[in-house]
Structure formats: structure tokens, C-alpha cells
Specification:
The chain is mainly α. The chain has eleven helices and no strands.
Length: 341
Amino acid sequence: MSEEVSVAPGWLTPDPLWVSSGGGSMDNITAGTFPPAAVLPPQPPPELLVNPWDIVLCTSGTLIACENALVVLVIWQNPALRAPMFLLIGSLALADLLAGVGLVLHFAFAYLLRSDSAQLLTVGLVVASFSASVFSLLAITIDRYLSLYYALTYNSERTAAFTYAMLVLLWGVSLCLGLLPVTGVNCLGQEAMCSVVRPLTKNNVAVLSVSFLLLFGLMLQLYVQICKIVMRHAHQIALQHHFLAATPHYVTTRKGVSTLAIILGTFAACWMPFTVYSLVADYTYPPLYTYATLVPATYNSVINPVIYAFRNQEIQKALWMICCGCVPASVAHRARTPSDV
């Protein structure tokens, strides 16, 4: 009997039914079961069924790519958006853009090429892109903390050099993580070593998950410090101007703290289910659980432009100039408040 194994589409371990549907293996089974005179006429190959969850991931990837391509285009074409903050937002948008492209390519290659090489390349691209996205979120958090803690010296050349160093470091580490499956750290030869996401090994996914938990803990600590600084500044301003607790300044400061909670809560809600599940599960678990936790993780790249780019006043002005050639007065004269942290 032939032992040729087909590459299953999608992110999961090959389905035995998919393997048995290959033309060569069915012919051998048929020939071994019936006498030559009773051999059935050749049947047309079965139609390629598409996993609905893969369609959802491909749709998410398309939305992610289009949304973040707009942010990258705005920052790239506007010379005024070259401050460290905008460079980090651009890095986040570029990482999410590549992640969206990786999801789309993985869907296309999985159902068209069905080869190990294409699968490794697309999975490596997705791993590197999402890693760069998470690292960029950490870099933005560090930048926001430094802008508040060192407010007087933040706009110096030292800050710009530190920002470039963070960008080089985060993209270098992300590329190394993405190259691991391509350079041999995969489970294509030993399915028992596969994680919930094929062809990543269980150890590889465990390292990624633990790294995410450490980064999340660091971001949580930084945001707690940011909240303390914002509240301390608000209290000092209130004392200087004899404000009461119910004044608009207090309201906007409280809104700023709520915004930080929403940012961190959204990040945790999107990534934590998949992170925890990938630590406790392996390739023997039902595929439904993998998709149910992986899809929300991709939504973080959909939400990132809304939180970090489209809420920014300067990017809003650039978008209005691109779309209609003018900037509304409500956007042009809006003052920055603590809710914009």
C-alpha cells in the first residue's frame, strides 16, 4: 500500500480522512479488495473542502491588512509624523499589516500549493509579524512612560536614538522567532511533537506563550506607573488652580486612566485565551478549541489602529487631508487631554 501523505490545509495536524482521499491510496485499497474484473471505473477526485474557520482567519487577515496599510501610508507620506511616538505606531501598523498578509497567504497556499515549504514560510511570517506587533505594543508603552516620567528631556536626540534602538531590537528578535520554523524547528517529521498550531513544536509555542506572559506583566507594571504619574500631575494642577473634584479636568483625567485600562484589557482579552490554551494543549485536542482561541488573537491587530492611530490628533489631521483635502475645525483645534495617553 502506498504511504504517500498529503499536506492538509489549515493550521492543524493532517486529517486522516484527508489523507485517505488521495487518488493513489484509494486505488491501491480498491485493487486489494476486489478482483480485477470487478474494479470500479475511476472516479473524479473529491472536491477540496474549505474549512470555515480558515475563511474567518483569511477574512480577518484581509481586514487587518487594509486597515493597517492605511496607517502605514499616512505615516510614510507625512513628513511631520517622524517623532518617536509615530515611528513606534508605524512599527505596530507595519507588523499588523504583515500579519494580515501572512494570514491571507497561508490560506491561499494551504488550499492551492499544499506544500511543506509554503506552509513553513507563511507560518514563519505570521509568527514574526505577530511577535513584532506585541513587541511594538511594549515599545509604545515604554515610550509613553518615558514621555511622562522625563517630560522635560523627552524631546531630545537621546530619545530618538533610544527609539531606533528599540525598533532594531524588536524587529531583530521577531525575525529570529519567525525563522525558527523555516530553519528546522518544526514538527513536520514528527507529528507527536506538534503544538496546537502546526507545524510549530510544543516547545516553540511554549516559549512564545511564556514570553507573552512576561511582556504582559511588564506592560501591566508600566501602565500602573503611568496611571500614578497621571493622577499625581492632575492633583498638582488641581491644587494650583483650586479645582474641585468634580471639575472637567478631573473627569478627563479619570477618562485617561479608563483609557489605559481599556487598552490593557483589550490586549489581554485578545491574546490571553490562546496563550493559556497553547500552554496546556497539544495536537490531540479538538481543532475547534484552537480556532476559537486563535481568531480572537487576530482581532487585536484589527483594534490596534483604532486605539493607537485613529485616536491620535495628528494622524486624524493627516487622514482628513488625504480624504477631503481639509481639516475640520473640531479636529484642528481640539486640545490634548489626559485621556489621550
